Amino acid sequence: MEIPLDTTLPGPSYTSEREFAREREAALFADWFCVGREESVPEPGDYLAADVAGESILVVRTADGLAGHYNLCRHRGSRLVPVAGAQPAASPQPSGCAGGAIRCPYHGWTYGLDGTLRAAPFLPELRRYRERLSLHPVAVTTWGGFVFARLARRGGPLQDQLNGTDGRLAEYPLEQLRTGHRLVYQVAANWKVILENYNECYHCGPVHPELCELVPAFRRGGGDLDWDDGIPHRDGAYTFTLSGTTTRAPFPGLSDRARTRHLGELVLPNLMLSLSADHVAAFTVWPHDAGHTTVVCDFLFHPDEIARSDFDPGDAVAFWDLVNKQDWAICEQVQDGMRSRMFTVGYLAPMEQPSADVGHYISVKLRPDQILDH
To answer: Which residue from 10, 107, 121, 123 puts its CA 20 to 30 A from 221's CA?
Structure first.
């Protein structure tokens, strides 16, 4: 008898390195991947380095805007900016200032901020090949203060991937917000396990007792909530802190609804947004292999609040750190279970349908005959 539930992707999609390699090309490289915040590159010459599923890239502020390049010298392949090595870095987004040019530390080949070769010591004849020896380009765009990079040469606009998120969050001043704190986690789970967990609250009752105190409806699995309209808190609560309150003012211009409800958005493939009236928890998901992922949680606040002498993000940070660690622990349990020879596919309850979006996304990116089913 057929079980009347939708299913997840097949087991190897979460555990196979071969399948992960396919996803890198078809999704993580082919689509717009969130690599950080625009505030980290405010002036010409500023850069951020990012590891996009094993490919190191640079996003550089030029006089005309942002430019993206592979972190790769055209001479001998040296990194232009040092990376942490094979192990996941404490943060996948180191930043710095290159000044007016990018200089390779190995032999001194020097590139303009736009990637054009400027100088190669003792090789003046290379001047006529400058265009052919420019840094390999990476497409870059922005939305809401977030920076997105696309490693594939061609692809659709970011607007397609936002899938209406920009409209649903239009009243939030995302571009104006600034980072007040950062938490970095190393999670022994597949990146899709983390996204699927974020996109449902069927697990909230068993896994998140403190969160359910703040949002009592979560005890019922979240199936009767209107996610697009926002999530109501318990009486007297209006933000994601242990008390449900804070001394921070709400973002200017928010509607009464937004001042009292919590919104969540998933921008595939790697940006998760949780929005309260006074802060935004922005999660970027950084896959390393089939079973290991870095998750960076940036806490975004209005600059007027950060400028206050008594600014303290600790109430939001403490709450989210508690909830995050509960999530990562259960995701690691799921990942470990998926390695069993008996796991072939998972099932999705009706209230988990948003989690199915992740599987649908991968299924569209990979041709059906490319998805392992055994």
So the answer is: 10
Residue 374 CB: number of other CB atoms within 10 A? 6
What would the pLDDT profile of 333-350 be if each residue is shown by its tens digit? 999 999 999 999 999 988
- Per-residue tokens: 302: 């209005």
Cα 47 to chain centroid, rounded: 18
Report the largest interatomic distance among the alpha carbons of the chain, rounded to a whole angstrom: 75
Sequence-ordered list of residues with C-beta below 8 angstroms from that of 282, at least 6 positions apart, any chain = 37, 146, 271, 272, 273, 297, 298, 299, 300
Taking the CA atoms of residue 287, residue 289, residue 290 and residue 294 in that order, the dihedral angle to the nearest 10 degrees is -40
pLDDT averaged over every residue in the chain: 92
In this structure, what token pair is assigned to residue 135?
Answer: 């840094």
**pLDDT value for 347:** 92
Q: Using only C-alpha atoms, what is the Rg of the chain?
A: 22
Torsion of CA 188, 343, 209, 196, to 10 degrees: 70
Higher pLDDT, 127 or 42: 42
CA 304 to the chain's CA centroid: 25
> pLDDT, tens digit, for every residue of 292-330?
999 999 999 999 999 999 999 999 999 999 999 999 999
Helix (H) / strand (E) containing 14: helix 12-15
CB-based burial label for 43 (10 Å; 0-12, 13-18, 19+): exposed
